[in-house]
Amino acid sequence: MTIRAEPDVIRLVGQCGAEDAEALLQLLLQQARPLDLTRCEHLHTALVQIIWGSGASLAPGGAPMLPDWLCQLLDRSEGPPARTAI
Amino acid sequence: MDELLEQFLIEGRDLVAQAGDDCAALVRNGSTGPVIDSAFRAVHTLKGSAAIVGLRPMEAMLHAAEDLLGTARSAGAAVDPERARALVACIDQCDRWMDEVAAAGELPGDAAAVGAEIGARLRGARSDAAKEPAPSPVDSRWATELVEEERAAIATAGAAGRRLTAIRYLPREDCFFAGDDPLALVAAIPQLVAVRVEAREPWPALEQLDPYRCLLSIQALSSAELGDVSPVFRLIPDQVELAAVQPAAASRGQAAPTAVAADPTIRVDAGQVDRLLDLIGELLVARNQFGAVAGASLDGGLDGELRTSGAAMDRVLRNMHRTVMAMRLVPVDRVFRRVARLVRDTASRLGREVELEQQGLDTTVDKAIADALFDPLLHLARNALDHGIEPPETRAAQGKSPRGTIRLSAGSVGSELVVELADDGKGIDPAVMRRLAVQRGLHGAERAAELSDEEAVQLVFAPGFSSAAEVTDLSGRGVGMDAVKAAVERLGGRTVLASRPGEGTTVTIHLPATAALTSVLTITVAGERFAVPVEAVVQTARIPAAAIRPVGTGQAFVLRDTTIPLLALADLLGLQADRCEGDRRVLVVGSPVGLVGLVVDDFSSRSEVILRPMTGLLSSVPLVSGTTLMNDGSVLFILNLSEVIG
């Protein structure tokens, strides 16, 4: 299971593909929680879009296994994407 | 060979073909509008591809062609005939260079000079002939703006002043379903300098968000060469624009981008399709074995069910076979185009003026046939130019147009593919053929005199008919018309020639539409099994020994009022057979001299098989046109009956 719902955090682990999109969307709709990406190795674009739409913040530790520019794209408080340079 | 170059050689051929068609149309009727648009796009893309793989002389030459077409396009004007011909020469040259690159991995040493010469012809008398080619008129503003706006990121990356590649990527909304992961592709871009991700529309609330719709628009900059970036987007060229941005130009707000072509199809190695076909053949064999085993061990209750599922399996197998065969179909114009180019080359070498007409270019044909058709057609075209079309002055003296015409056409007639090459040259003189036949010892004078005109011209197909006396540097390459005939027969087809002195010659090639599935009759000869194509057999017959009469040194029998010579197939194949008494089983087959009866031990029912042509060393084995795998796993040789009888 690449997505694990915990009481105060949603943990994304390993290779998270488009097939996880529906599950992640439902979890975030149920209850907004910070996302733990510390063990996420790959994050599909579909999941990135949902994270932006939810405005969820990243749990401490960031996303060390994702490219820097993608972390910057994710680590925003205002939600929907505008533009980002690396 | 480097993968990018290989890709270029595949895709480039299509672009050359497209541009060649369009330019030929420009020469013919001075078209404007859509034809120029289409030519411009093809030339533009070809130029970009040539640049990516570093074929500079080709890129420069195409640049001149692109300029010419671009000017005509924006002026809505036709291209003047002289320069339209230069365009054709330019495209032909690209084709030739691609042959050289395919063979040698690089352009020949004189490429720069040749390209410059054609480039000069393309620029023609244009007063504004640019000393320095202007950047192509493609919308590149976005690339320039991106570089301007990302100046800070470029400096941070230490890429200031370097050549950059700008990427504009608009993923399709449904791209997730196609398995695309746009941000992963961006992550794969080498030497990424900057990324910008924007929403295409106001971001929806989470409740309204469709998790499977991509809403992004992405721009990026890389300090890698365009050629190193483009492979990342190889599978989705329709969603991406790439532009190489020169730093100096960038600061002046000008960029010279190179767009990457879109291609809605996927390319599959022909070998894989062949492998799939082989597997279907094996599945067919397995299915037949299964049927036999099931039939043998039936108890009443299962019978119906087994038969139903067997029928379902057969239906799927037939469908699979049809689908794979359709995958192997290619338009015949691939072959025609290469012939057309060689006709133009050859005509100019021989000082002949020739108009080449092509018809039925969209006729599709099995790839194996298309490939095998090239040599015979090339030989026929050379013959037409060398022996058919007269020099312009001779033609004029005879009241013909000084420009000869060669017509190359293809069409499907029933289950046959008919390819025809016709010229309006001097034709074949039956009197000359009779004389040559006697000189070359093919016939005695008496027999030669008896030949009808039609029969006499067919002598060109006789083995060894062409001799050193008429060998020229062109068609005399040790292969005569007999080689053409043999090549066509190897494909299961036949060749028909018609000629009128003074009016021209038409050679028609009839081929089975697909080479791969053939109806064969299994026969036994001298205890060995062979197969013969059903279409070669007129009928099978059982002839009582009493009905066989000696005729001269041989034997014959009468079938429906016709006396038919009888030959033992075993003797023709050089096999030892026991003389049998009683009824003979006979295959009646057609031959150039009329019907012939062939005695065999036995024949069994016909079946549909996948014929594999003989390849490699085996391709020169006489009398056999291919092999096939039978239900029991054995390999059968398919006899070429016309060679066997001949």
TrEMBL record, chain B:
<dbReference type="InterPro" id="IPR036890">
    <property type="entry name" value="HATPase_C_sf"/>
</dbReference>
<keyword id="KW-0808">Transferase</keyword>
<dbReference type="InterPro" id="IPR036061">
    <property type="entry name" value="CheW-like_dom_sf"/>
</dbReference>
<dbReference type="InterPro" id="IPR002545">
    <property type="entry name" value="CheW-lke_dom"/>
</dbReference>
<protein>
    <recommendedName>
        <fullName>histidine kinase</fullName>
        <ecNumber>2.7.13.3</ecNumber>
    </recommendedName>
</protein>
<dbReference type="InterPro" id="IPR004358">
    <property type="entry name" value="Sig_transdc_His_kin-like_C"/>
</dbReference>
<keyword id="KW-0597">Phosphoprotein</keyword>
<feature type="domain" description="Histidine kinase">
    <location>
        <begin position="272"/>
        <end position="515"/>
    </location>
</feature>
<dbReference type="InterPro" id="IPR008207">
    <property type="entry name" value="Sig_transdc_His_kin_Hpt_dom"/>
</dbReference>
<dbReference type="InterPro" id="IPR051315">
    <property type="entry name" value="Bact_Chemotaxis_CheA"/>
</dbReference>
<dbReference type="Pfam" id="PF01584">
    <property type="entry name" value="CheW"/>
</dbReference>
<dbReference type="InterPro" id="IPR003594">
    <property type="entry name" value="HATPase_dom"/>
</dbReference>
<dbReference type="InterPro" id="IPR036097">
    <property type="entry name" value="HisK_dim/P_sf"/>
</dbReference>
<keyword id="KW-0418">Kinase</keyword>
<feature type="modified residue" description="Phosphohistidine">
    <location>
        <position position="44"/>
    </location>
</feature>
<dbReference type="Pfam" id="PF02895">
    <property type="entry name" value="H-kinase_dim"/>
</dbReference>
<dbReference type="InterPro" id="IPR004105">
    <property type="entry name" value="CheA-like_dim"/>
</dbReference>
<feature type="domain" description="CheW-like">
    <location>
        <begin position="517"/>
        <end position="646"/>
    </location>
</feature>
<dbReference type="InterPro" id="IPR037006">
    <property type="entry name" value="CheA-like_homodim_sf"/>
</dbReference>
<dbReference type="InterPro" id="IPR005467">
    <property type="entry name" value="His_kinase_dom"/>
</dbReference>
<dbReference type="Pfam" id="PF02518">
    <property type="entry name" value="HATPase_c"/>
</dbReference>
<keyword id="KW-0902">Two-component regulatory system</keyword>
<dbReference type="InterPro" id="IPR036641">
    <property type="entry name" value="HPT_dom_sf"/>
</dbReference>
<feature type="domain" description="HPt">
    <location>
        <begin position="1"/>
        <end position="105"/>
    </location>
</feature>
<dbReference type="Pfam" id="PF01627">
    <property type="entry name" value="Hpt"/>
</dbReference>
